[in-house]
Automatic annotation (TrEMBL):
Family annotation (PANTHER family): N-ACETYLATED-ALPHA-LINKED ACIDIC DIPEPTIDASE (PTHR10404), TRANSFERRIN RECEPTOR PROTEIN 2 (PTHR10404:SF33)
Region Disordered, annotated ranges: 16-67, 738-763
The PA domain, residue ranges: 242-305
This protein's UniProt keywords: Cell membrane, Disulfide bond, Glycoprotein, Membrane, Receptor, Signal-anchor, Transmembrane, Transmembrane helix
UniProt-recorded Gene Ontology molecular function terms: transferrin receptor activity
Any one GO cellular component localisation term in the record: external side of plasma membrane
Membrane topology note: Single-pass type II membrane protein
Start-end of Acidic residues biased regions: 34-45
Gene (name only): TFR2
Protein name: Transferrin receptor protein 2 isoform X4
Main location: membrane
Transmembrane domains' residue ranges: 84-104
Amino acid sequence: MERLWGLLQRAQRLSPGPSQTIYKRVEGTQQGPLEEEEEDREEGTEPPAHFFPMELRGPEPLGSRPARQNPRLWAAAGRRATPYLVLTALLIFTGAFLLGYVVFRGSCQACGDDVMVVSEDMNHELGPDSHQGTLYWSDLQAMFLRHLGEGRLEDTIRQTSLRERVAGSAGMAALVQDLRAVLLSQKLDHVWMDTHYVGLQFPDPAHPNALHWVDAAGKHGEQLPLEDPDVYCPYSATGNATGELVYAHYGRPEDLQDLRARGVEPKGRLLLVRLGVINFAQKVASAQDFGAQGVLIYPDPADFSQGPHKLSLSSHRAVYGHVHLGTGDPYTPGFPSFNQTQFPPVQSSGLPSIPAQPISADTASLLLRKLEGPVAPQEWQGHLAVSPYRLGPGPGLHLGVNNHRASTPISNIFGCIEGRSEPDHYVVIGAQRDAWGPGAARSAVGTAILLELVRTFSSMVSNGFRPRRSLLFISWDGGDFGSVGSMEWLEGYLSVLHLKAVVYVSLDNAVLGDDKFHAKTSPLLISLIENILKQVDSPNRSGQTLFEQVVFNNHSWEAEVIRPLPMDSSAYSFTAFAGVPAVEFSFMEDGPMYPFLHTKDDTYENLHRVLRGRLPAVAQAVAQLAGQLLIRLSHDHLLPLDFGRYGDVVLRHIGSLNEFSGDLKARGLTLQWVYSARGDYIRAAEKLRKEIYSSEESDERLTRMYNVRIMRVGTEGTGEAGREVGELGWERGHLRKNRQHLSQEGEDPESGTSLGLACPLVV
């Protein structure tokens, strides 16, 4: 028995083991499929290391041994199914997300264009301390109005108008230091000045300008009185001009054409023109184009307020005005006048080649009485004691202009509150500081409002307000010579401001009356101005807002309020030269213009009398309007600029060109490219609007990118084309480049550029 048992054990050891199915990884692939391999091995041996013994036994006959479950088999199956389960879950989640998004977007289609204006309740500012909580738009508005003081405005206007402020004078140098000290006393992040050495023209006291009759032999006769001998036209050509006198109404090109059509030739003669409608520079340029020898400019009583209760200009007052058809220093065109740097000897093409001189109404009466020839048209008749006005020609006149040019230092003063999120984007507000004469309306009001806004925003910063974008307050010098200070600064930092300045707000000529309100602006700002007008109280109609005041007689508020930017405004330079949207606010008289502008009678007392004691209230309204505009522009997450409005503006201007379609066809040209460009722009604007609708407001980087794209609307096409389009009141006309900026991401949202060595805003 024992021998039999030994034989059986030996036979079991010698018999082959059961067939085993073994899985091993396929060579050459990291995660390849597994292939089966049949291998017989002796019992007790370990499987090779590269094998994966997922199942150690092969198939056995059914019922040969009890069935049992292998846990390793189930684990392997689970690992193989996991990727499929994850993919299925992702597909379900993605489908649900897309379905919810479509439903949500469909419900927001009714929002329309209103989505472009950031909700006022969503504008908030976190204070520096957590206990201060959140500042919403209503909080900021209440804070601003609480800190804005009316009494300070009136006192500052009075004190400023009493100081000598001619550019380059000793009085101006003292005022510069005083204003700089005021800014340094406020809670501003940076205060600095820059100085430009510019060419200004002044009268020569030793050789005053003169006007003489000339007899038939060409000899000088009686000298005519220039009752304001120190009143002159800066940048007039110097020298002598002699010729017969002709009356040419306002001196517009159509006036000179009409004069020629009536048989009176302006060429070779001196023109007598009235103040108004167009500026001095345009009058002289038109006269030069028609071959005139010189120009005399006088104020006609018909162009000013009449009546027993209306103030009017004295008949012996002449009116000051420069005659450079352009802005900035005409002796360094295109270059900033820093550090007395010498540039190529080139002058602005806008400098006239004929002399010009302002005269009083009394002197003009003496001249008109000597005129012969046809009677002037009825609409050309004025209110001088001469009836009727005749066209001329009259006796010969000799005009001598002896102005001299002087290199003069002018200083701009800057104060900055640095933004917290976009510190390299600047909302700029400025006011002219200099004036020829008292200049109460010309520059004292704007300077007072600027200083009050500086003080108000400084107080707001002390109470927790911090704008997203930087606020830049500027006091300009050289404004009476053609916005010289602002233009020289633009020329010096054009490459930066071209991309970094958001909007420019001008406070010049802000209060010239109280009956009507005008906003001379760019299309991008029209919607925002409408919104702000609805939140500022009217200064002379109790219980009404400014918006309700302007629509009282005209339901089209835009037709009543919006005007193009004039060439003699500093805001014009920002728009036409740098492509920056700009606005200039003005309260005006209903009817003839404020009579004392640019004269020695532009005093605080006269301005106060014209406004019948409402000067403080009107100045306060301008400060409220400008301040709330600054809050929106510097605080809103998304810039509240209506970039879609350009399509409508371009369409209106295309309509004005249709009358010239015949001339264009004769030259092989067509307006089709303008229509195509407008279409491209509208589509690009709509695409950007949709992107903004579907974006997250909390995404700071994305918000900045959209703001950059909005800012770059209208920032291409500088030069003469831009200047011409800017005069119509809208930025640069190169729509295809606008469309490209709307369609691309723009600059790197993290980039930042300073305003030059003088400005410490380096991000």
